[in-house]
Amino acid sequence: MSFQLQSVLITDEIDTQCVEILQKNGIQVVKNTKLTKEQLLTEIPKYDGLVVRSATKVTADVINAGTNLKIIGRAGTGVDNIDCDVATKRGIIVMNTPGGNTLSAAEHTCTLICALSRHIHRGDRAMKEEKWSERKVLMGNELYGKTLAIIGLGRIGKEVALRMQSFGMTTIGYDPIIPAEVSAEFNTEWMPLEKIWPLADYITVHTPLIPQTRNLINDQVFSVCKKGVKVVNVARGGIIEEAAIKRAIESGQCGGAGLDVFESEPPKDFTLAKMPQVLATPHLGASTTEAQKRVAVEIAEQFVDVVRGKSLFGAINAHAMTNALSPESRPWVVLGRKLGQVAAGLNPGNVENMQVTTYGPSLKQAGSYLSAAILSGLLQNSPAIGGGDSATLNLVNSPALAKQIGLNVKNTHEEAAPAPYTNVVSVIFNNGFRLSGTTSGGNALLIEVQGQQFSLLPTVAADMKNTLVKFSITTSGGTGNPQLLPTVAGALASAGMCVSSLTVSVENDGQKWGVATFATPPTEKCLEVLKTIVNAAVLVTL
Ligand SMILES: NC(=O)c1ccc[n+]([C@@H]2O[C@H](COP(=O)([O-])OP(=O)(O)OC[C@H]3O[C@@H](n4cnc5c(N)ncnc54)[C@H](O)[C@@H]3O)[C@@H](O)[C@H]2O)c1
Ligand SMILES: O=C(O)[C@H](O)COP(=O)(O)O
C-alpha cells in the first residue's frame, strides 16, 4: 500500500537537505518555523505531510485539524511531542529517524559526565566572574574506577557505555527488553534497578518518556543511592523528577546533575538550571551539524520510500503495512477490504471474533495486512466507531479501532491452498459467517460467501464503484432453472440497471446464490424486481 504525497509542511528548524530531497521527488514543501498554534491549526489542512523536531507539539487538535494528513515525520528520535494514539486512530503514519542522532546524544551525555566530574561549568563561571580563588573549592574526582549506571540500554545507552569504559568506568545497567547476554556484549552488567541504585556513582537515563519511566528517579530512589551520586538526563525531562533533583542537591544526597532536557521546554522556572551543582544545556543533545544533516536526509528519504511503496523504515504505528508495500500485495489489499465490506453488508450484527486464514506460499507474511484490510472494509460504516467515516479507515488505524471496540482478530496460515487455487484468504466470524477470495490478473475475486462456492468467480474490482447484490435461489432438488440467469439479467435490464457481472454459485443444499455487480448503483426498484424472481436479495455497496 502506498500513497500520494503532494505537500509537506516543516515547522521546526531542519537542515535544508530535507526540503531539497522532498522537492526533487516532486513534493511541494513549505517550511515555516514561526507558526503560532492557531496558525498551525489553520495551515495544517492544506498539507498531507508534516515534519517536525521536538519543538512543535503535534497534539490531538493539530492532528484532527489535519484533515488531509497522511504522514507525520519526526526528524529525530523522541515522538513524545506527537499524539501517536490520535494519529493512529486517524490512520496517519508516524515515523522517526531512529539512530540518526544517536552518536551526538551519546557524545553530549559523555561530555556532561566528564564536565560534572571536574566542575567544568563552575570553573568556567568562576573565570568569567574573575574569581580565581574558586579553584580551592572545585576539587573534582576521577572517573577511573567509578560505576556508571545506564538506565535504558538501547542505541544511546550502548554508545555511552562504550565511550565511558575508555575512562575506566564500570558500566552497569537496566533495560526491560535488552537481555543480560546482549548488554554483556558491550561490557555492561545487566541488573535489576534495586541492585543498581546503591552501586552507582553516576546514573544516566536513556529511555523514552512513557508512564513507566516518568519520575523513574525520585526521592525514594535518591534515598537508596550513594551519597553524592551524580545524575545525567539527555533523554527526556521528567524521567528524573526535577523537584527530587533539587531536594537531593540541597540535602547533599545528589552531588551534581547534568541536564539537557526539562519537564517543560523552555523551563517555566529556571531555579533548578541555575543551581551551581547543575550543568544545564537547552536540549542540545542532537544539535550537531552531523546529526541534523543525517536526520533531515533520513526523514526526507523515508517519506519518499513510503510514497514509492519501497519501505516503511522508521514507521512506529504501521505494523500491518510492513508487508503490504509491494505491487503484488495491492490486489490482495483491495480483496481484503472488499471481503470486509461484503461481510459488513451481509453479516450485520455483533462480531466479536474474526479469524483470517491465509493459504499458499505468497501469503505467508500477508496475515497482518490482510486482516487490517478486511477490518477497514468491515468497520467502515460501523456505528461502534462513529460510522460513515470510511475515508479515514486504512491499514494503520483499522487494527487499533478493532481493538478499541473489542473485536478480536486471529491470523493463521496454511501452506497449501484449497484446489484449484494457489493463494486464498478466508475469513470466518464467531457467528459462523465465512467468505473467501483470491486474486487473479490484479483482480479481487470472491470464491465463497457463506458456504456457497462460485466456479466463475465474481470480481469485486477496486476501480469500479460497484454494488453487489446477493440473491438466493431455491433450486428444488438440484434441478435448477436454466432460464434463471437470463430471467434475472432481463429483469435487471428492464429495471434500467447496467449489469457488469452476474454469477451464480455451485448448488449447495438445494440453494444457489447469485452475485450481480453494477457499474452504477442499483436503485431500490432493482431490488424489488429481483425479489419477485428470487428468495432474497441483499444490496452491498462496495
Ligand atoms: N537530548 C537529545 O537531544 C536527545 C537526542 C536523541 C535522543 N534523545 C532521547 O533519548 C532517549 C533514548 O533514545 P535511543 O535512541 O537510545 O532509544 P532506543 O529506543 O534505542 O532505546 C531506549 C531504550 O529504553 C528502554 N526502556 C524502555 N522502558 C524502560 C524502562 N522502564 N526502564 C529502562 N529502560 C527502558 C527500551 O527498552 C530501549 O531499549 C529517547 O527518549 C530520545 O528521545 C534525546
Ligand atoms: O529525541 C530526539 O531526537 C532529541 O530529543 C532531539 O530533539 P531535537 O530534534 O528537537 O533536537
Automatic annotation (TrEMBL):
GO molecular function annotation: NAD binding; phosphoglycerate dehydrogenase activity
Group of enzyme by EC: oxidoreductase
UniProt superkingdom: Eukaryota
Reaction it catalyzes: (2R)-3-phosphoglycerate + NAD(+) = 3-phosphooxypyruvate + NADH + H(+)
EC number(s) recorded for this UniProt protein: 1.1.1.95
GO biological process, one term: L-serine biosynthetic process
Pathway: Amino-acid biosynthesis; L-serine biosynthesis; L-serine from 3-phospho-D-glycerate: step 1/3
UniProt keyword annotations, A-Z: Acetylation, Amino-acid biosynthesis, NAD, Oxidoreductase, Phosphoprotein, Serine biosynthesis
Domain spans labelled D-isomer specific 2-hydroxyacid dehydrogenase NAD-binding: 111-285
CDD domains membership: PGDH_4
Domain D-3-phosphoglycerate dehydrogenase ASB: 330-438
InterPro entries listed in its UniProt record: ASB_dom_sf, D-isomer_2_OHA_DH_cat_dom, D-isomer_DH_CS1, D-isomer_DH_NAD-bd, NAD(P)-bd_dom_sf, PGDH, PGDH_ASB_dom
Segments forming domain D-isomer specific 2-hydroxyacid dehydrogenase catalytic: 8-316
Family listed: Belongs to the D-isomer specific 2-hydroxyacid dehydrogenase family.
Subunit structure: Homotetramer.
PANTHER family (UniProt xref): D-3-PHOSPHOGLYCERATE DEHYDROGENASE, FORMATE DEHYDROGENASE 1
Protein name: D-3-phosphoglycerate dehydrogenase
Organism (species): Mytilus galloprovincialis
